[in-house]
Amino acid sequence: MTQTDPQPSPSQLRAARELEGHLGWLDSFTGAALGVLATASGIYTYLGVQSLLDDTGAMSAFAAIAYSVAVSVGIFVFWSYMLRLFPAMRSTRARMGLLGAMGLGSLAIVAMSSWLNAAALAGSAAVEQHLANTVQDYQQSLERAHEIAVSAQALEQDVARVRQSFEDLSAQEAEGGLSGLAGRGSVYSLLRQKATELGALESQIAAQSAQVEAAFDEGNAILSRMRALTVEPGPVEARSVEFSEQAVRLAGIVTTLRQLSVAPLVQRAAQDLSASAVLPELDGRTEAVRGDQAATIEAVLEVLAQRAETLEAAAAAVIAMPPPPETRYTPISAADAVILYASSFVPSWAGAIAIDLLPAVLVFILAITQGAIRQGREGARVEDTLTLAELRAALGALKEVETASDALPQHAHDHEAPRADPAEEAPRVAPVPRSR
């Protein structure tokens, strides 16, 4: 006794017929919809390719059109293959193979089309984002250079304090408070010599304060213009040209501010403060007085060394400050900008990829529906799957066969043909094909 396969219920057969009807209606416009998607992707690909080409001649336009047409045809053919073949696969191995092929094809579509679509959708905004980020970098560089220059200008107070200390000591020496000899002798001359040197350095530092502020104001004005260029209406390519010119000017301002820093000058002056002291001739009348002057000068030199060390340390602290970051504006195309700032344009990337990979959803929907249809018809007999139209066609064919079989003996008698075997006279009815 053999075990027969379970027969599907009438409700399962009706559901399978209903799904087949839906698929037949959907298949009537699926190809047209796929063509529209492929054409739209090709148009945006054309716009993206144009942003990459430097030449605007007829040859470049033809090259962009050829590339976009190739992309549209490739997308249409690829997804047409998937829509037809993937749902028809019955084995797991075959489906996994086609699924891998669909993954590779999707990656190829993203590589040749989607990123160009994103460039067409958000290319100008991405370039403006690049300009805005560059403005921020230049602003940080300008502010850092100004901070270092102002810190160096603050050394003027340290120089003034050391100068004032030597002037005070010289005043004391003039009254005899240091060497015990009132007047303007050797010790007084040494103290005045260093006070004069420090006074000249102080004047030089003060003279650069106005230059530092003027350079900083000019840099801020350039930054304001650069910010305006990032949001002005009009083609971003023309704005990028002027932006590049302003960036060059601002880079020169930053370099000027770095050169206006007086910290290296103060450091060298502090090193020379004690090393370049010109010792005057002792002018005391007696040996004892000259001995007092020598001792006082030695003490003054020690004070010079201490002041020089303090001043040099202050200048070294300014020199050790981190320099402004090196900032350089690099023009960038719309396609490159979209890739560089992809995280800022996620919706545009999603739309560009979706227009190319949306048919993948249709492939899975069709595969699931075909699987449901096959499951509903599994084990069904031929007579259970016949539709009314198929039954009418079968009855019509049967009538034609019967008519032909009735006319066959009369035709054979008229031509005196030998009588055939009765088994051979019986017409063979072709089996009725099973519907999907």
Describe this structure in words.
By secondary structure, the protein is mainly α. The protein has 3 domains: 10-122 and 344-381, no CATH class; 125-333, no CATH class; 386-425, no CATH class. The chain contains 13 helices and no strands. It has helices at residues 10-52, 58-85, 92-153, 155-174, 186-231, 236-259, 263-275, 287-319, 334-340, 346-377, 382-385, 388-414, 422-425. Helix 3 runs antiparallel to helix 5 (186-231). It is rod-shaped and about 165 Å long. The two termini are 31 Å apart. The model is unreliable at 420-436 (pLDDT under 50).
Overall pLDDT metric: 78
Shape verdict? rod-shaped
Percent of sequence in beta strands? under 5%
The largest sheet is: none
Category by helix and strand content? mainly alpha
Please tell me how large the radius of gyration is: 47 Å
Helix/strand order, N-terminal first? HHHHHHHHHHHHH
Uncertain parts: 420-436
Number of helices: 13
Question: Concise description?
Answer:
This protein has 436 residues and is mainly alpha-helical. The chain has helices spanning 10-52, 58-85, 92-153, 155-174, 186-231, 236-259, 263-275, 287-319, 334-340, 346-377, 382-385, 388-414, 422-425. The chain is 79% helix and 0% strand.
Topology:
Layout: H1 10-52, H2 58-85, H3 92-153, H4 155-174, H5 186-231, H6 236-259, H7 263-275, H8 287-319, H9 334-340, H10 346-377, H11 382-385, H12 388-414, H13 422-425
Helix pairs in contact: 1-2, 1-3, 1-10, 2-3, 2-10, 3-5, 3-6, 3-9, 3-10, 4-5, 4-8, 5-6, 5-8, 7-8
